[in-house]
Amino acid sequence: MPTLVKMPKWGLTMTAGTVTGWLRDEGAEIEEGDPLLTVETEKAVNDVEAPVAGVLLKIVAAVGSEVPVSGPVAVIAAPNQALSEEEIASLVAPAHPQGAGAKVGIGGGGQRTNREARAAARDDSGRVNASPAARKLARDLGIDLAGIPATGPGGRITSEDVERAVARQAATGDVREDVVVLADGRALSYLIAGPPTATPLVFLHGLGGSRGTWENLLGDLVERHRVLALDLPGHGLSDKPAPEVTDYSIAGLAAAVREGLATLKLLPSILIGHSLGGAVAMQIALDQPAQVTGLILVDGAGLGEEINPDLLDLVDAEPSSENARRLLDLFYEDKRLVLDRGVEEMHQGRRRPGAVEAERAVASAAFARDGQQTGLPARLGELAVPTLLVSGTEDRVIPVNHAFAASRVIPDAWVKLMPGIGHVPQVEDASGLARTVDRFARAISG
Q: DSSP letters of 190-216?
């Protein structure tokens, strides 16, 4: 029997991948596990491996083509097995997913305009801003408007936004994107999935990042764990009030996150913080130790004093595509991950109203050219929860020796090094970090 090779699904929200190169030619004999092709997604570049041994009979997806998740990319046959073009077409046709990777038009004539998605606006009563057509469509389809990113003017949800949410839900399964509104009116955007009764794993991103940096590893955890990835205040799709009216210090960010988690009834939880998010997670554990069952600090800030001043220079620079590229180049050891679409996504994220001002306010409150000023290193001995310190050995932002030094002070701590990895292990080795998170979570949850 011939085997159809399909586009894999990496992460919770992946709907399609772009073929960037074939590593084997048609007619080549291959072994199970051989890399066949390279695929680029919004977050990473990965190789797709052969599911069986045989002969690469037919390449279905050409270089440059975007293929929906589970869509066909190639046909592998047994040695000496011949198939006609009609037989190959018959094998491939049923595998084309319907709608899973479809792009929904926003502008006239089906052409997508460059409107940016964001959390929907609300009126004084808390009612989501949506067009009448979008409201009716959501009601007919049983979709909660509160979890749909808006692309309409003034943060208004359009009917196309609802259609896009339906397509995404069909492709990603039981994944919910929503906002939690704090007492002061700020909305924090989040993604949640997994068994509701499992111990929550809460993921907090780094400076200038978003919850999207975690998505490639969440898919490996969602079957066993309740996972939530949150946009910190001033980041991603969360609200970005002016620094003059908002506390963007580590303590201020921690208070907002803690309130959001309490509102969502996700405490106590295991907090997984990357870089700045690590400092926020530690602050929550110090302020409310009973609400934190464990900490995983991934290249965490707040463990020591040093920080690469190049990061702060790039934060202070005017937003541009070149500036975004330099940031990603600083973060990743694997330069294949400095993708054009990733560069543009970071650039557009920094162009959101209030984003740069919030990012700079966070940076100036926590870091300086001569070192970090979180105040947390002096309190590491107070941490009263199991703590795993994860560090990429090639991190150029925060020295790896911070993890070792901190492990000697934190009462219940372990170190996990990720060889050959830079500052963002959740992107450079998502599966490896997911396995580490899973083992730690299961160990401390019994």
A: EEEES-TTSPEEEEE--TT--GGGGHH
